[in-house]
Amino acid sequence: MNHIRNFCIIAHIDHGKSTLADRLLLATNTLEERDFQDQVLDSMDLERERGITIKSHAIQMNYELEGKNYILNLIDTPGHVDFSYEVSRSIAACEGALLIVDATQGIQAQTISNLYLAIEHDLEIIPVMNKMDMASAMPDEVRDQIVDLIGCRAEDIIESSGKTGQGVDRILAEIVRKIPPPVGAPDAPLQALIFDSVFNSYRGIFAYFKIINGTIRTGDNVKFVATGKEYDADEIGILKIKPEPRKELSAGDVGYIISGIKSSREVRVGDTITHVERPCNKEIEGFEDVKPMVFAGVYPVDADDYEELRASMEKLQLNDASLIFEPESSAALGFGFRCGFLGLLHMEIVQERLDREFDMDVITTVPNVSFKAFTTKGEVIDVHNPSGMPGPNILEHVEEPYIDAQIISKSEYVGSIMKLCIDKRGTLKNQVYLTSDRVEVTFDMPLSEIVFDFYDKLKSISKGYASFDYHQTEYRPAHLVRLDILLNGEMVDALSALIHRDHAYSFGRRICEKLKELIPRQQFDIAIQAAIGSKIIARETVKAVRKDVTAKCYGGDITRKRKLLEKQKKGKKRMRQVGNVEVPQSAFLAVLKLD
Q1: Is the separation of the CB atoms in 70 and 41 below 8 Å?
Q2: 177-181, long-range: CB < 8 A, 24+ apart
Q3: pTM of the model
Q4: Residue 352: which residues within 8 A CB-CB, separation 6 or more?
Q5: Distance of alpha carbon 16 from alpha carbon 158, whole angstroms
Q6: What are phi and psi of 453, to 5 degrees?
Q7: Who contacts 273 (Cβ-Cβ below 8 Å, separation ≥6)?
């Protein structure tokens, strides 16, 4: 065990984690030059197209230092705030972390929050200053920032470049010297932590684990503690570029197990694997349950695909443990699921993955957060979507979740960032100048205000420089109303939203205008209305497509024309009673992108 090192790479978005991981793989000959491609660990098409890491990826490397052979288990993690749950799981499976800071940008919000996560788990931190080959690098300034943040010595900071390979040998040597080997007893009862899993349509589910104590061999009879199910270990092995089978793995090793599990409900991330004959006394204290921030309904476009959508969601949940869903139904969209996401990017990625990996066409409703509704009978109801809000006759008050939002930016953008936050009902708590031109502002603001388009706006007003991180604090009373959209007097529940009373009028007005552009014209007038309770606050009309029925009447008495028009009018009236209005998918999506 003294020759094993488990470590992860943590950093802010675009600070060069995956590029540096590529260099480490090449330096240890884990990867042949001919198999090399940029960001080799980002195996999903989506990750490669967007240039972001969505999943954490585990891989094993062999490294020789001073005549001794070492096994290095690396986990590359995502940098985006929406995937911080992936980071927390990776950190639970490691003893050390490489903290990477971009020499051209310095410390950002996500660097700090990921660092705190690592320190909470008592990981050994190795600071690395990346992108040293760039002309715009500011090594002295960034070095001071890292020293202030971690309290290390300036000479401990490794200067590196993922592009040129500078500093990679020193990083590998420091990993061996500084990160402690895993502690555990190979002869104790088996105790292994599941930190990830993936579905394979031929072989069932691969569960990735880290062994804390004990030894596991191929063919062993094992038990998953949380679910209580028992299996035979058909194949165990280590994670290289491709999985490699092994006869046995013992304490400190990171590997995978295939035991012919078909149902995704039977594998839970954070569960403990142990032997049936010689079980461990207690399960591993692993992960806190994930708390979704944003809720939205996901419905199949074709109602017959409901069961298929459920199966797809379960398979996706294996690979993305932060996705939470439960069945719900809607008058407009039929049966679907209420899903909890960690943020808007996470929601977009899940939708995209359902489409690509499982070929599912889905409609997503307006995202919102969960509120607490207090009734006059003294009950507290968790409200995840607008239709669950109790009527005004029994509703006493509503509470909404608040967050601490931490934004780090260049000082020239502070004014516009403050204006954005105050418009979103935020109050300034703190403002600290980290250096002469970098400032950290902390705002106390409602979570529902950042759900829509806050992140996009923040990026555009700060020209991409500002970084943003948040955590939920508490629930507070809020002045919320339910805004309904009516088409010809019929409510479309998928477009309803819970919104602050001050913003309701402008939001209702904008939705009506947008829908007028997107709903195709029918043979009759369509009234689009925004209403709060029974009070209509905005209205637009989609005009009817008219056929000129009087074209054949030239000359003659006016009563002939009048008769034809009256006949047409009756037909239109009957049509309006039986005709229903189809809302196109683009209308649901446009509401999400209202600006």
Answers
A1: no
A2: 178/96, 178/124, 178/126, 179/5, 179/6, 179/7, 179/95, 179/96, 179/124, 179/126, 180/95, 180/96, 180/124, 181/1, 181/2, 181/3, 181/4, 181/5, 181/95, 181/252
A3: 0.70
A4: 46
A5: 14
A6: -140, 20
A7: 190, 191, 192, 194, 207, 209, 216, 222, 223, 224, 225, 257
* 33 and 22 Cβ atoms separated by less than 8 Å: no
Place of tokens 């809000």: 389
Q: What is the pLDDT of residue 580?
A: 67
68: left (phi over 0), alpha (psi -120 to 50) or beta: beta
CATH of domain 191-275: 2.40.30.10
Chain centroid to CA 526: 38
Indicate left, alpha or beta for 45 from its phi (over 0: left) and psi (-120 to 50: alpha): alpha
pLDDT in tens, 379-397: 888 887 777 778 777 888 8
- Assigned CATH class of 372-478: alpha beta
Pick the CATH number of 294-367 from 3.40.640.10, 3.40.50.720, 3.30.2350.10, 3.30.70.870: 3.30.70.870
**pLDDT reported for residue 545:** 80
